[in-house]
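Appendix C reproduces, verbatim, an entry submitted by the partner laboratory led by Prof. M.T., so that reviewers can inspect both the input and the predicted structure.
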Amino acid sequence: MNSGIHHNLQQAMQAFHEGDPNRAIAILKIVLQEDAINSDSIFQLGLACAQNNRISEALIIFECLLPYKNSDARIPYNLGLLYSMQGNYQSALDAYDLALEINPGDVESLVNIGSAYNDVKNYAAALDALQCALQIKSDIPEAWSNKGIALNNLKRHEESVDSYGEAIKLNPGYFEAWSNQSVPLNILRRHSEALEACDRAISLRPDYAEAWLNKGNTLNELRHHDEALILYDKAISLRPDYAEAWLNKGVSLNQLKRYDEALLHYRKALRLKPEFNWVYGNLLHLKMKICSWDDGQESVGSLIYQVQSHSKVTLPFPLLALVDDSSLHRQCAEIYIKDEYPLNPGPGVIARRPKKSKIRIAYFSADFKSHPVALLTAGLFELHDRSRFEVYAFSVNPHPTDDEIRGRLKKAFDQFIDVGTESDLEIAQLAREMEIDIAIDLGGHTEFAPIGVMSYRAAPIQVNYLGYPGTLGADYIDYIIADKTLIPTGSQQYYSEKVVYLPNSYQVNDRKRVIPDQEFTRQELGLPEKGFVFCCFNNNFKILPATFDGWMRILKAVEGSTLWLFEDNASAALNLRQEAENRGIDASRLVFAKHKSPSEHIARHRQADLFIDTLPYNAHTTASDALWAGLPVLTCMGQSFASRVAASLLNAIDLPELITTTQMDYEARAIELGNNPDKVAILKQALANKRLTTALFDTSLFTRHLEAAYGQMMDRYQADLVPDHIYIANSWSLRNY
């Protein structure tokens, strides 16, 4: 390098140092215009800047070089690397494309294109680029590892595991590939292998925070939450700004019901990474669990706006309890399904099958245990007509619990198949091999639910029923079981499924449920000896400030009355007592019921006078419990599925006088009944008379109606007709008890 060029380059670097990039660019252009041969010196200067982490300066240097050395693929290639380091992935992709134009088949550019597409979540494009690279040169560990990332995000989890395996074969010390392989292994429920992969990554690189996080995630999947917390803390100690570790630690704390601590961790995670998918909605749901209502309206307003803007801001379930808007519920569900559980065409289309003598129906659930879904459905499974149906259970819970109700259910099915350790694809393939005709998803968007199985088309007909009160937003779910109270015909547009209208209530109930002889005293339950007892045993997250405001007005208007609530956690009870004080109500007028066995819970209803409901997420199983126990339920019916369930039950038991449609009427009716115990006594007698003579608790009648619906679904399928709305006529003659 001659002294003049050297001087000019020093001047350019001085300009950079003084914060004057325009002067530096002008100097570099002068050098290049004088003699393009000088570009080699400038190229080396750019490399030196990049190696010393002076990224902005290196970018300027290579951008200046590009017009003068447009046949040198090294320049756009290095630009691509530098843009990627800055997170400017589109510019990086453009630069790599230019490098390929100059040097077609450049493997390193193809690998980096795949990596950049992974970074912008265009996984299909990433896979194309990486496959091209591997066809040219198959021994590049980074290409196999990046391919594993793309395949995992395309829900091709088995292939993802194999791709990481190829990377590891080529480079056994590739700790990132070991750690990343645990992610699809977890999804496939191959947890022991996932733990081994994480341990291998940690042994290779003990300070690799991602491996500690992934091992924590595996332990969390195994419900070893306390152990997971230790590993998340290790990841945070290595990377204090590691948003994913803060978030996942919050998830573990949430599972342990350490809600206040979980809330702090969710907030920290969002401060570090505001763009986290689904976390804002989960944070609001967590606040609702502990009845922490600060900034409630503002937060819900933000949530609504973000859903309407198609953001991945909340899972579908939390929204049901916050907003009474069926259109928004559908939009939210569709956003979630599109991102997490789109239709997976991998297994192919199910070939049309010849008609069999019996329809094979399969119920898929994570809740075949002491759980509301199981308690409601046990009688249904037992009463299915075996001359027309073969009835199967697919238990998808990876952590099954053996209890009395599970033992009963195992006897109720023709086959009870425990598939909790199998992958979604494996479960769907098994259902196909068994030629299941109708797959009923009893979970929807709840924990461990089988929606992933349904995304592979487990059966030619797939049904959304009972476990989730709303649309699933998935085009591969054909029908939703409902009734005309839940989904008026004018509301069908808010459901991605076709609606099956049962004639009474959509909700099945088990007529065999025993009302125990056990008598609790008020003193035993912590209730005052005298005074009217309003109760609501709904989950605490269903209590919105507006509902609570109404309850406090009711207590003020009914002297000496008590509000008896379910206590899910101590923080919620503490916060609700404080909210009562804030509204001028003595906190002692709120009494909290602890967890009890299902039979004891039914028995204690006798000490309440009136069940008062929540909006927009009504009492569902809790309303059935109350009515079965002889306790009247007062509800306010909203617009969405979740807000109309109690009304559906009351119509089916012929007590429409307990359905209101405005907050004002709801409060007025509660106050009227609270101040007139004689009217409540009349209601209780009416309920006692109707409990076994109306449709709500007629399990046999319900079963025949549901079977009629299944029959019509199959008739349409056999006739090669697309799913359509189905209306089942009421038929008391179908009783068989």
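The two ends are 101 Å apart (CA to CA). Additional entries are available on request from the coordinating office.
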